[in-house]
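ugh ok so i messed up the first submission bc i forgot one of the chains. this is the corrected input, ALL of the components this time, i swear. 284 residues overall. if the numbers dont match what u have on ur side tell me asap before i send this to the collaborators (the ones from the other lab, u know who)
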Amino acid sequence: MDSRLKRIYVPMSETAFYILFCLQEAQHGYSIGQRVKEMTNNEVIISPGTMYGTLSKMEKDKLIQFMFEKDKRKVYQITELGLEILQVELKRIKRLYQNSIGGNDFEK
Amino acid sequence: MILKNRKIKVKFFTVADYMEEQQWLSTQQQKGWQLFRIVPPCIFIFEKCTPQEMVYKLEYQQQSITEDYIQMYQDYGWEYCGDCMKWQYFRKLKKDVQFENDAEIFSNAQSKIDMITSILIKRMIPAFIFLIGASVLRNLYYSTKYIWMDIVVFVLYSYVFIKFYFKLKTMRKELE
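and heres the new structure output, hopefully the right one now
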């Protein structure tokens, strides 16, 4: 993986993580926001400026790709590269969690 | 000047004062005047409305404004009320704000910093270079009679630049 991408996306901010995670399923920015609100019980709210900016950046970095536009809403989906980075991040989070609950053996 | 149900106010906000500008627009709405249109650089046209609590937010958007950009904000409950020199103006009724972050257009410090950095790099620095360049050329090839004007402009500009830079620094500290 590109070292520049590693520097930017590992570790990932909560916002970036949830956006990338949700985009395993193709959807548009507002629906991602709604989904994240549901998933986190309204604790993580991604505002439109942040959402639009992050989606633009991720598209430029080829973590997500533009699929189509419907009713003036752009639908995106995660790319192979995006999935790769997501897996790295998920592994890191799992390890963090395992260690936080007192486990020393983490999944390899 | 009041024309029927319209009012014109002239107020100058620098790029570093966008938060004050947001607050000022909110205050006008509370007094019963809603933003109708902005004529650059500092003319605000208001129209009479019922006084209400409205949140105003500004975003500096360097890229051209597309339909999906406006649609996204609309989905989130923001009304697009115009633009002025790459600044996009949005508003939302306070009573429609359910959670604190619903009253913001940036939900994390990083995106706020990105916007400020973008202003610094894409507007302030190029403008600064242009001002210096124009001044140097004029003094070199025309006359140095008006160099005092250049100095005044330079000082004013530096003031905005420094104010802005400190705002950026404070935001960066918040992130850390």
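quick check: The radius of gyration of chain A is 15 Å. that seems consistent at least. The mean pLDDT of chain A is 92.
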